[in-house]
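Open question from group meeting: does this chain pack into something compact, or does most of it stay loose? Before anyone orders reagents, we agreed to write out a predicted structure and look at it together. Recording both the input and the output here so the notebook holds the full record.
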Amino acid sequence: FSCFMRGAKPSGARRAFYRLIARLMQWACLLCRIDVQATGAEDLPKQPFLLVGNHLSNLDPLIALAALKGREAAFVSKPENFKIPVVGFVMHNAAFLPIDRENPRNAVTTIKTAAQHITERGLCVGIYPEGTRNKTGARLLPFHNGSFKIATAAKCPVAVMTVRYEEGLFPYERRAIVRFVEVLDAEYIAANRTDAISERVKEIIEKDLKNQT
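Structure tokens returned:
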């Protein structure tokens, strides 16, 4: 596959791939015995937005798509994931985007394409500012402020999400608790630098996770 996608698929084809992703998500949750419980989706903007949150598991994007209740969202992911058989094909055709943080030029290309997803194709875009999974589940890892350049370029709202996992009622069952905590509107995004937006989002996530413990 191409390392960077030149454009999103036509809407009809894209919807077909999102239906496939939804089915894969259902299978994944069934196989992994994960029950997704989401709150706050009704307060998300009707217009496309940048979705950001903490990152704990490889399943986080699928969990987020389940919580979004049918909203189309393309996630930014590490290039290695696009090399996984079948999974990479689906991600590519559903307009997911690889980002190589070690290559600034390619990273800028991805940010520009992600902004176009929002402004020209009506897609929401999801990204995890920590850049990698937080395997300890402790304090958030340092944020990559560049993640928020997608929102400043697209002049769109930023929806802040938290996710945590807990043991379910039955053996080997887990619950994914997804909360859409707050939305920073487009006016706020336009009035602030990416580092300030990043710091504000980090504060929102840390506060919400702390309140849940």
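Observations to bring back to the group:
Residues 1-6 have pLDDT under 50 and may be disordered.
Strands lie at 34-39, 50-53, 73-77, 97-98, 124-127, 158-167, 174-184.
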